[in-house]
Known about the structure:
CATH class of the largest domain: Alpha Beta
Strand content: 25-35%
Strand order of the largest sheet: 2-1-19-18-14-3-12-13-17
Helix content: 10-25%
Mean pLDDT: 94
Amino acid sequence: MPIQFELPQSQIATYPAPERTQARMLCLDRTHHTYQDQHVYDLPNCLKPNDCLILNNTQVIPAQFKGRKATGGHIHCQVDQIHDDHQATLFIKSSHAPQPGDTVYFDQDLSAAILSKKGPRFTVRFNQPIQSVLNCIGQPPIPPYLKRTAEPIDIERYQTCFAKHPGAVAAPTAGLHFDTALLSTLNNQGVRIAELTLHVGAGTFEPINDTHLQSGRLHTESFEIAPELAQAWHETKSAGGRVITVDTTCVRALESAYASGQIQPQTSETDCFIRPGYAFKAIDGLLTNFHLPGSSLLYLVAAFIGTPQLEKTYQYAIQSGYRFYSYGDCMLML
């Protein structure tokens, strides 16, 4: 059964906290099952020298845009994955879906040919390089549950301060809570900061269905583990430190890259579905936001702390007024 909960509409964060580190942080001691209500700026008090904090340095691209069909009907597009300079997979919403062989049109004499359709996903080929298209007409791909269009604040705040490699169509949201001052404080107290890249796909918002449960696989996302990250992981574990991931995206990448007691440098893809019963091998702690009911991210958290503990923790968070989802508060599990 999908993991569900009831959330008051008022606790869905539609805008970020005034400052990144002002977000609330619910700290869970997994051994003693106790809570502490803190803020992200308190994170240095929760970590120790020799701990390693792992960040996802993907950069969110302006992946939402509008267009029209040859008939004049409006379409709303969201990039799912970019395959090469001209070809991509999109989610397209329209009163009547376009079909393979159709052409859809955008501003600035831009267009795309529909090559194929599989479920809600359309493979298309643009008449101009995709990055040029997105730079011309794209908007920040804020989640649909915000129920608003992108605003200037989203250009800055729906992007981490350490984003480097363009490719994500959704933010690694736990990373949104960090600023350079906090990272500097952590580094100065002996916490190691390491980075990987996983380009978050739009599939992150899809609810889990029977196909996922039966196959044990999810949507595919590409990731890169650099040698520096692999070395940081090995040295941290050898020194008895803890590996703590910022965001579930880092968990997916690290657990996929783990082999024979090591994290292997690689550029690869993952469709792993981490759910209760999974034995974690690569991480010791997790900082993540509060996630959508029925989502794969919620299953991952349930796998890490157990479904009964997750249900109790989310109920505590709701009763304590924590803000949920992409622009909401977070929880630290150690």
